[in-house]
Amino acid sequence: MNYRNLQFNVITFWNNRLKRRDFIALSSSILAMASAKGFAMPLDSLKADQDTIKINESIIVNTETIVPITKLYNFPPLLAPGSKVAFASPSSTTNQWEVSKAIKMLNSLGLEVELGKIIKNQQNKARYLADEDQVRAEEFMELVARPDIDAIIAGRGGYGSMRMVEKLDFDVIAKNPKIYMGFSDFTFLLNAITEKAKIVTFHGPVGVSSFSQFTTNNFKLTTFANHPEILEIPLPQAEILTEGTTKAPIVGGNLTMLVAALGTPYEVQTDGKILFFEDINEQSYKIDRMLTQLKLSRKFSNLKGIIIGQFTGLTKRKAFYPNYGYSLLEVFEQILKPLNIPIMMNIPIGHISEQITIPINSIVEMDTKTKKIIYHYTTI
Prior knowledge:
By secondary structure, the chain is of the alpha/beta class. The protein contains 11 helices and 18 strands. The longest helix has 13 residues, at 133-145.
């Protein structure tokens, strides 16, 4: 029997009628050596007739080493009308007025919304932080442990999530799978949660986001349970730096925070994955420095693809005494193009009014020719 063509693939099915609080966690693993062809089962035959989560493990291994069960990342239960979303304050200050548009949008989707105590009682007493580290961590963990909360969304980015990360209990987080969403500074916690708790997290809008129709549609498409297991995201505005196709788990977020995590127990794991990144108001030499640091940290050594956010002034050179600096496009060409992997640019993620939502550590197909990415609600 030839095992070189085997893969390891975990598909989680859930009943769309269920709310998160009604889910029963099922963690069963069967690891057997069988050919992909002989072990394959039709997807229809795997759908549940009852309110349980079904897991089918087809053995598919790209190399001769089987992926250990401990490496699995699990999708949290997705949303449905009646689910409850809470706005937390892991980073900088926000208030009820600033998240009012987000509340209205979530209510329009049939979701209940709860504001964290820090937002409701905001006193602006902790400078650039929403509150003291211990207070922010305690609020976050209270929302994590509550079975009636189906999703936790960061009120805003700014700064502060990495100051409280050591105060979080990732065992408790792992036992309370739910949607964790945000971007910018929250990148630090998204990657920490997905690695420490083995839960797929979501890079998407925060409470102060504009929630345009595009952002709202993408949020609903990605986080609600009534969609197929394969979800196509067309990206007609994409610009191609390096052509190609690839399929791998996706990780990433704000570039500054990805670099800030290097050397810590919470740094992003990029081996065999697609990396996405974005940032805002950074000069090209700073982007150069951060990308070079990722490269020197071996984060590019076995990448399968790269997705770059929308950076303004890609071809503009700014003054850098006594000359001019490289443009951002030149920086990408110098550092990333030699990797010889598919690279797409100008993707709507992060600090923009219209953004897509990305499930971190889900399987993603990337095709530069068709200019689209495909989410597989399947994890490794």
